[in-house]
Amino acid sequence: MESYQVYTACLIQPVVKWVYKRSQLMENLGRYLKLIDGIARRAGGWAPLKLFAFPEFFLQGYTTRSDIDMKYYREEILITLPGEESDLLGAKAKEFDVYILGCALEHDPKLPEYFFNSAFVISPEGEIIHKYRKVFPFINTEMAMSPHDILDRYLEVYGQGKNLIETVFPVTDTPLGRIGTYICMDGHLPEVARALALQGAEILVRPTAFPVPLVFPPLDTWELQNRIRAHENMTYVLAPNTGGQITEELPECFTPGDTMVVDYNGMIVARAPYPGETVVCAEIHLEDLRRRRLDPRRNFLTQIRTEVFRDLYKEPIYPKNLFLKNPMKDRNGVLRKDCKPIIEAFIQKGVFVKPE
Q1: pLDDT tens digit string along 49-66?
Q2: Are 326 and 332 in contact, with CB atoms under 8 Å apart?
Q3: Helix 190-197 / helix 221-233 crossing angle, nearest 10 deg
Q4: Is-above-0.70 flag for pTM?
Q5: Contact 119/131 with Cβ under 8 angstroms?
């Protein structure tokens, strides 16, 4: 496949209006379509603009209201992919010959009882060519299910002709490089990015609604994770974060931006270290990344001694199929995503030590 050796990626950092009615979702989308218009007509040059990336929940927000049941959630907030929203984004992708990446709360007609937090990539032909369902939804509040929560059913529907890793952690070959996506909380688990990198992913995109106090000092969790995932996997990490939200449920700057692009050496090459609506653009040097991966020095992916880790995950930790027979029907279902029994089991095994 012919590739773009150098191109520009633009990460949109929006202020998201939280959605309680379908019309509000279209207000958000209308704003983004205008932003794409304005940026696409100004960007490019020697490194042509080829990719727009939006953060997690960019269309819908993520209400935690307890009075919203699943019927209302599907009708007013969740979308399908493809659907009306991705079609409108697809028209912009065709108009400007770009790829567009987003992340939305999705209702899947193939799995009608379940719903997901899904990253997707739209090609310049206007088609969805990549879809990833968040494997680690935020356990305390997020109204979404993981493929792991319905693993047997998920593999039955989507795993035909593929192994488990390919099914759950897809990588898509494009002229922009091999693209893999992971979402917000997934970045806390190094195994997610590693699963993508070992399938050849070169461009990792992490759409996120990352909150305070993790974004800025003294924790700096956001920067640390993005840089180490890029460094240890020799990949770009494109990390669009939400720059704020319009809602009565949380402070405006609870998700305070700091959208960034990190290169394959773990260096930040573009950044907006503040909240608010903005755009972060960077040149992606695909050929340089591929040359770096042929250097034997600090070539981490080729030095993994798999045999010594083989027993690490021999026994399950977090239970699979949690929602397989009893899907989440309202916000009370979030309470079933509970790791307290696992913490207790870790204490019993001696993995954790209970304080005096």
Answers
A1: 999 999 999 999 999 888
A2: no
A3: 30
A4: yes
A5: yes
